[in-house]
Amino acid sequence: MALFVDGSISGLDDLAARDSQVLDIASEEGINVSQKMALAQGEIGIELASLLESLKLAAWPFSLNLEPTINNIVVTPALQLWHTYCALEMVYADAYGDQLNDRYAVKRDQFHEFAGRARERLIQSGLGICMSPVPQAGTPLLSAAAGDLADGTYYITMAWVNEAGAEGASGAPDAITTSGSTFVVQPPSSPGGVTGWNVYAGQTPEAMFIQNDEPITTGQVWHQPVLMKTTGRTPGTGQAPDILKPTPRVLQRG
């Protein structure tokens, strides 16, 4: 699972899955759905900070040597659902404000109610918290190098790994075409808390497999050998939470 701070925790497909008309209506009304998703995530982030603060007041186990912040929050299904409904509510609130169409008001109120229910589920099931969060990786830098890899186009991505071996979400892949050569993968600057990285490669974005046997040390590059692995682990979406911590209730938005 991705971290809350990795980026948008819902996508356009998630919104459309909950309301098949939302993208058409947003287009008709000139509403930027991506902007609404960002605004919804910002508001949820403020509420999550309040929920984390309430944990401190409710005897958070400080013996764990961790005082969690928003950077420790993992996107659980309940959290993603809350975000999806909040974003839908914002889209229809904007549409109603522009057109004063009662149909949009009904949708706005419906998704406001759904968002509240999703928030309650999150509070009951608990915030997903990672003790040592690993951020999502960026796109690695690819270059050709001397070698005998079969000619073709290859897609490559990477993921950071921490000292405990936990892997963060993989970055957006990039592609390189080889001809009488192989490729070298150079990671971006490493964030704090990571000790290595994994590289995934394949001939399609849907079939990339881990190429290294052990995590590559930060600061080192990967020189792809002649034989490319075509089975094994595929890029992941991030860490599972170390704990799920139910939270005391605080006043909710709206």
Q: Roughly what is the average pLDDT, rounded to an integer?
A: 92
Straight-line distance between termini: 29 Å
The amount of beta strand, in percent, is: 15-25%
- Structural class call reads alpha+beta
Domain count? 2
> Can you write the helix and strand succession as a string?
HHHEHHEEEEEEEEEE
Low-confidence stretches: none
The largest β sheet comes out as: 5 strands, antiparallel
Shape: flat
DSSP strand count: 11
Helix content: 25-40%
Number of helices: 5
What is the CA-based Rg, rounded? Answer: 21 Å
In terms of topology, how is this protein built?
Layout: H1 12-18, H2 22-29, H3 33-57, E1 73-74, H4 77-99, H5 102-125, E2 127-129, E3 141-145, E4 152-161, E5 174-178, E6 182-186, E7 196-202, E8 209-210, E9 216-217, E10 222-223, E11 243-245
Antiparallel strand pairs: 1-2, 2-11, 3-6, 4-5, 4-7, 6-10, 7-8, 7-9
Helix pairs in contact: 2-4, 3-4, 4-5
Tell me what the structure shows.
The chain is an alpha+beta fold. It folds into two domains: 4-133, no CATH class; 141-223, no CATH class. It contains five helices and eleven strands. It has helices spanning 12-18, 22-29, 33-57, 77-99, 102-125; strands at residues 73-74, 127-129, 141-145, 152-161, 174-178, 182-186, 196-202, 209-210, 216-217, 222-223, 243-245. Strand 7 and strand 8 (209-210) form a beta hairpin. Helix 2 runs parallel beside helix 4 (77-99) and helix 4 runs antiparallel to helix 5. The protein is flat and about 65 Å long.
Concise account of the structure shown:
The protein has 2 domains: 4-133, no CATH class; 141-223, no CATH class. The chain is 34% helix and 18% strand.
